[in-house]
Prior knowledge:
There is one protein chain. With 343 residues, this protein is of the alpha/beta class. The chain contains 16 helices and nine strands. The strands form two sheets. A seven-stranded parallel beta sheet has the order 1-4-5-6-7-8-9. α10 runs parallel beside α11 (212-233). The protein is globular.
Amino acid sequence: MTPDRTVLRVLKGETVFPPPLWMMRQAGRYLPEYRETRKRAGSFLDLCYDPDFAVEVTLQPIERFGFDASILFSDILVVPHALGRELRFEEGRGPQMAPMTAAEIDGLDAGSFHARLEPVYETVRRLRAKLPATTTLLGFCGAPWTVATYMIAGHGTPDQAPARLFAYREPEAFRRLLEILAEQSAAYLIRQIEAGADAVQIFDSWAGVLDEASFEAFCVAPVRIMVEQMKAAHPHVPIIGFPKGAGGFYASYRGKTGIDGLGLDWTVPLPGAALLQRNGAVQGNLDPLRLVAGGRALEDGVDAILKALGQGPLIFNLGHGIVPETPVAHVEAMVRRVRSAMR
């Protein structure tokens, strides 16, 4: 018999109550066991590329909280790294890359792309073998726009001005970069699916800094290419799109890209989220700082989401990744409140 994976049921349009739940960045620094594994692994990239360590940290929140989905532990920047770009992570500064010029784009090396990412595929294979049968395994990647912002600037910036300026000044070069990233990212997700991922999520963490025309060109168009390629290869595998900060652009994003589930950040008003839910599953959208605060702030946030969205296909999640200072006890309280909810 096919295992009952509730996240998949919701992504295919079914209403399940209480809703399944997981958290973005659920394997991370808020967990003491993660911090211990991180010390043993050495560098952050060693943690991502060593299947033993990557499997260990991916399973930690499943073992502790019993979430309904487990998301592969990796990083969105392994894609440019696999294309030959240098990448390192510095404490307190995050990812650091050499800023990319227009002349370097056609020099990106896709020849060894999958060989460089083989440790990630091995991690997915091991995870599917180790996870409970009812736990949905999620693969993921960064969306082309968000990945490109780091490649152009060489690091994270408050408003991604370097990438936006590059796109305005070098439109053909930037279009080519997004095209390459869309093709390679789709191939990367297809390989994750073939290794055992049940569904995948595309993170567009910097979608909220763009105007309407740029959002269409840089967020919608490349993700549509990715979805078309993935659906051609695996038509029944659900895809979650998360264009964080998209605001008024959320309304058309699902239809224009072809994604199945729509991830919502915490700024999306719940009445608006309910309207978006009419077209399919939504995921989110608790403010991560309510989880840090705990108590009444957490309870009210959880209850409001369940009341507004619990009558339709909902995957309960945060509106962005869990932050490192979150108390473990607050996560436990959130899980209890969601799972004990009554209609």
